[in-house]
Write a structure and sequence with these properties.
With 69 residues, the protein is mainly α. Helices cover 41% and strands 0% of the residues.
């Protein structure tokens, strides 16, 4: 399994805030983690901060290696 290119870290939130994020995520058919990322990106954009775009995930099978023997 490929390793994730995303930074993992612990985030402590008020339970009521997390519940609101979960409700919003459910409405948007996202995980709470994905919803938090969307909200952070929107907040950064409002402040004029544009993070570098992440490299797209590699998809599909790796090319077959030709064996010389």
């Amino acid at each position: 399994m490929p390793t994730s290119v995303k930074k993992a870290f612990a985030l402590r939130l008020d339970p009521a805030l997390y519940a609101a994020v979960e409700r919003l995520a459910a409405d948007e058919l996202r995980s709470a983690n994905a919803e938090i990322e969307v909200l952070l990106r929107e907040a950064l954009a409002r402040r004029g901060v544009k993070p570098k775009a992440a490299a797209p995930a590699k998809r599909g099978r790796p090319p077959k290696e030709e064996s010389g023997s």
